[in-house]
Write a structure and sequence with these properties.
The chain is mainly alpha-helical and 115 residues long. It has one domain. It has five helices and no strands. The longest helix has 26 residues. It is elongated and about 60 Å long. It starts with a helix and ends with a helix. 0% of the residues are buried.
Length: 115
């Protein structure tokens, strides 16, 4: 149980931060789209499980449900690892903002002379 909660918290934080890395100006839209897909999956999943276990709810039917869920998770993880780089995307619309940012340097001599 502890391992599940630990892995879930790590994965949730990675997904939430990654949307900000991809497109900071559009992070809300990306979050809304990803939450929508998750909610649709949560609505459809009981129907799919019911279709697989409708007849007699045997162990083999539940194994099919488990393997289907594991396969979906594995495909999602592979897609995330292969296609996700966390870089600012070209469609993010922040090219001007990124190029005009000046690095902030702390000048300790100025701070000491002002004090």
């Amino acid at each position: 149980m502890f391992l599940f909660v630990f892995c879930s918290s790590i994965s949730f934080s990675v997904v939430l931060v990654n949307q900000l890395d991809l497109a900071p100006l559009h992070a809300g839209k990306i979050m809304g789209l990803s939450k929508f897909v998750g909610i649709v999956a949560a609505v459809v999943a009981p129907q799919v499980v019911g279709a697989f276990t409708y007849h007699s709810s045997t162990r083999s039917e539940w194994q099919t449900v488990f393997f289907l869920a594991a396969g979906i998770q594995a495909v999602g993880a592979i897609v995330f690892v292969v296609f996700d780089f966390g870089n600012l995307q070209s469609w993010a619309g922040m090219t001007d903002a990124v190029t005009n940012v000046q690095p902030h340097s702390v000048d300790t001599d100025n701070q000491q002379s002002e004090a």
